[in-house]
Structure formats: C-alpha cells, structure tokens
Amino acid sequence: MTLPPADPADPRLTAERAWGARRPWATLVTAVLVAVLGVVGLLVPAVHDALTRDPSLVADGEWWRLGSSMLVQTWWGQYAFNLAGLVLVGWAVERRWGTGWWLAAAGGGGLMAAVVLTVANPSLVEAGTSDAVGGLVGLLLVRAWRERAAPPLLPFVYAAFWVPYVLLTGIGPGYLVAGPVASVVVALLVADLRHRGGRVALPAAAALAGAVAVTLTVALDGHGLGLAVGALLGAVPWRQTRRETRREGVSKNVRAVRRGE
Questions:
Q1: What residues form DSSP beta bridges with 53?
Q2: In a domain, 152, yes or no
Q3: Strand, helix or coil at 52?
Q4: DSSP secondary-structure letter at 75?
Q5: Interatomic CA distance for residues 146 and 137, integer angstroms
Q6: At a CB cut-off of 8 Å and minimum separation 6, what does 208 contact?
Q7: CATH number for position 229
C-alpha cells in the first residue's frame, strides 16, 4: 500500500521546514560521546578523574583537560540534565543555523568557561557539559528573538527553564527554590509563545538570558560565561544567505496560518 504524499501546505510540515532542515551531525556525535563517557565516568572513578578539569594538571601540560572535562559529569542528575539540553537545544541550533554556529556556541562557550575558571580559580576541580549547553541556550534564545522566529517547543522549554535555574542554583537560594521558580517562568513564556506567537516571550527570554549571563559572568560562574558566549554570537549581525531569506518568508507564512489569516 502506497501512502499519499505529504501535503506541502500542511502547517506542521511547513513550520518544521521553516525552522531549519540542516542535519544535526555535531549534536548526534557529541551526544553519543557524552552519553557513553558520562556513564563510564560515573561508574569508573578513574576515568572521571582522568578527564576532569584540574587546573594544577592543566598547568603541568595536560591542556586537553580543558575540553575533555566537558564529556563527563559528576553525578547522575547532572548527567541527565546536561544530556537532555545537549540533545534538545543542540538539535534546534544546528538544524537552523548549521554545524559551524553549533561549534562556535557549544565549543566556544565551554572552552571560554574552562579557560577563565582555570586561571581565575586554580583550586576549582570540576567536570560537566553545562557550560557548553549554556552557549547553545544563549545562541538559541537571542538569535530566535533577533529573527522573530519561535523555536520548537521542547528546546524552548528547556532553554527557558535553564536560564533562571542556573541563576538561582549558582548564586541564589538553591535547588528547592530554583525548580519551582524556573517552572513558573517557563509556563508564562510558553503561554505567550503558543497563543501570541512569542511577541513577549522571545524578547523576554533573550533579555533574561542576557541579564543572567552578565550576572553569572561577574560572579565567575561557568554557566554565565558559556551563556554569554552564545548570547553574543546570537546578537551579532549575520550575513543572510538566499536559503535563509526563503526560510524567513516561509516563517512569516507559518505565523499567518497560525493566526488564521
């Protein structure tokens, strides 16, 4: 039995094409590495210790720890949260803007945080993918606002939750307050995104990302450094290709369909 071809006018298909159609190879490969090495590192402490970022060992010539520390996690909750962000936000970023911008945001954000913290806090030994995820979150929220393009729902939910959550766990009252507060922020932003196309949600999320990036960067928090790199990448003017111009036109058509015009 042959299925009928998909209707090119289907708003769901059009919306998917409007967001982006690039293949997210970097997200896939990195997610597999983080998933596998994360489990191995948690089960075999020697592997975790061999890959974590230790400023004293970096100073002794083991410079590769600046990057390898992004592939392992310290506890299972961190593992699940960071892997989810890498997959969801990474997929959205790479699908729309390509592997180059994905690498700039994730790699640049993670390495910037690693280098700055290694120099500024030589006693801090740590590991985790969250600073790289922060770069992706910053790029997604700021660039989506600049392009007036509502991201796919799940990546937006994660990014909108991540920003207030890392602020409140980093310099605020901690996990018990951070989760509920971040959930309320997400609910408000998603309500606007679904019912008004993000007229308030997109600029509000971008502004929140910028404010948290500045606050946590001043506090020498790696999440803020990663977020700042991604936000700056999203804020700079980009040269628009013909493909992106066509996609922008499709995005406007999708918004019109959703409004019933």
A1: 126
A2: yes
A3: coil
A4: S
A5: 14
A6: 141, 163, 164, 185
A7: 1.20.1540.10
